[in-house]
């Protein structure tokens, strides 16, 4: 049966890709950010996931304001990325897991989620950069992926409560998958940041640190906020926090914190990473 080994949640700022491409990970500006990832890579090397289910936001590569699904699930055999205008080099395609994708889709629809099913899908920096942070080097990716996009752009946004319910549904679907695979659940985005308007450059460190603690010990606490509460507390683009909430909700039972790291500034975004092991024999052995 499928085993959820845990979750990793991370920021996905486009300038990270430029720093990687230009070998600037050790520059004084970037080193405090990149120093947060070796413990995550070490843990992933121990638990060795086969599949990554990734909650993230599409930034106009597949969907724009004229057509914006609240939730969409990829069911493709492979996923490629493209030049998004950030100057980030394209990477090798990711292998999909269509059978698992359709299992998740069917389970989500049975749980009354109205989702968009994508048999062809591009993936943008919100997915490619976290993968490069977890498995650097630009070689073949060691995991197959199931991408799940969430609308964090066009209001009305899904609420934290709905995002949590989405993650719970995905977790139940993974638990019922009969194939013997090890699954990592990923949430990408945030944390607090605002890219435009009067509050451009806004970062709320106390709120971010509260969220990092809550995601470990009391994730339902975050469902008490509305989507507009998140905008107020974390900035207009800080709503990407809901991908973290969904990823955390997919983990059943108790979790153990493997590693966390928080750094300001990273571009004009609060950069963070949080790794959690699922409470099971595999996690304890690791």
Number of distinct beta strands: 10
Query: What is the straight-line distance between the termini?
Result: 19 Å
Helix content percent band = 25-40%
Q: Which regions are unreliable across 5 or more consecutive residues at pLDDT < 50?
A: 281-286
Our count of helices gives: 10
List the secondary-structure elements in sequence, H or E: EHHHEEEEHEHEHEHHHEEH
Mean pLDDT: 92
Q: Specify the CATH architecture.
A: 3-Layer(aba) Sandwich
The CATH class label is Alpha Beta
What is the CATH superfamily label?
Answer: LigB-like
CATH fold category name: Protocatechuate 4,5-dioxygenase, Chain B
- How would you sum up the global shape? globular
Sheet with most strands: strand arrangement: 6-3-7-2-8-1-10-9
Main sheet specs: 8 strands, mixed
> What count of domains describes the coordinates?
1
Q: How much β-strand is present in the residues?
A: 15-25%
Structure classification: alpha/beta
Radius of gyration: 17 Å
Explain the overall architecture.
The chain has 286 residues and is an alpha/beta fold. The chain has helices spanning 14-21, 31-34, 38-47, 98-110, 125-134, 160-175, 205-217, 227-234, 241-249, 281-285; strands spanning 3-10, 51-56, 71-74, 78-79, 94-95, 116-118, 144-150, 182-188, 255-266, 269-278. The chain has an 8-stranded mixed sheet, with helices on both faces. A two-stranded antiparallel ribbon has the order 4-5. A hairpin with a 2-residue loop joins strand 9 and strand 10 (269-278). Helix 4 packs across helix 6 and helix 6 (160-175) runs parallel beside helix 9 (241-249). The two termini are 19 Å apart.
């Amino acid at each position: 049966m499928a085993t959820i080994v845990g979750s990793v949640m991370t920021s996905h700022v486009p300038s990270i890709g430029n720093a990687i491409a230009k070998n600037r990970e050790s520059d004084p500006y970037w080193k405090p950010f990149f120093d947060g990832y070796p413990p995550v890579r070490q843990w992933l090397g121990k638990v060795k996931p086969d599949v990554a289910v990734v909650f993230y936001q599409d930034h106009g590569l597949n969907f724009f304001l004229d057509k914006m699904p609240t939730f969409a699930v990829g069911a493709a055999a492979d996923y490629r990325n493209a030049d998004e205008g950030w100057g980030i080099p394209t990477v090798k395609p990711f292998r999909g897991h269509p059978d698992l994708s359709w299992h998740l889709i069917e389970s989500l629809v049975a749980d009354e989620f109205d989702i968009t099913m994508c048999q062809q899908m591009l993936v943008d920096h919100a997915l490619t950069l976290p993968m490069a942070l977890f498995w650097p080097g630009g070689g073949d990716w060691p995991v197959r992926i199931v991408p799940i996009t969430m609308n964090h752009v066009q209001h009305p946004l899904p609420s934290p409560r709905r995002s949590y319910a989405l993650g719970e549904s995905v977790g139940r679907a993974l638990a019922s998958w009969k194939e013997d695979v090890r699954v990592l659940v990923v949430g990408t985005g945030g944390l607090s940041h605002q890219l435009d308007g009067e509050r451009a450059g806004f970062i709320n460190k106390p709120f971010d640190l509260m969220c990092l603690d809550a995601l470990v010990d009391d994730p339902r606490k975050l469902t008490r906020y509305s989507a507009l509460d998140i905008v107020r507390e974390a900035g207009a683009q800080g709503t990407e926090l809901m991908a973290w909430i969904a990823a955390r909700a997919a983990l059943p039972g108790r979790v153990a914190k493997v590693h966390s790291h928080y750094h300001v500034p990273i571009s004009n975004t609060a950069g963070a990473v949080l790794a959690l092991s699922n409470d099971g024999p595999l996690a304890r052995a690791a």
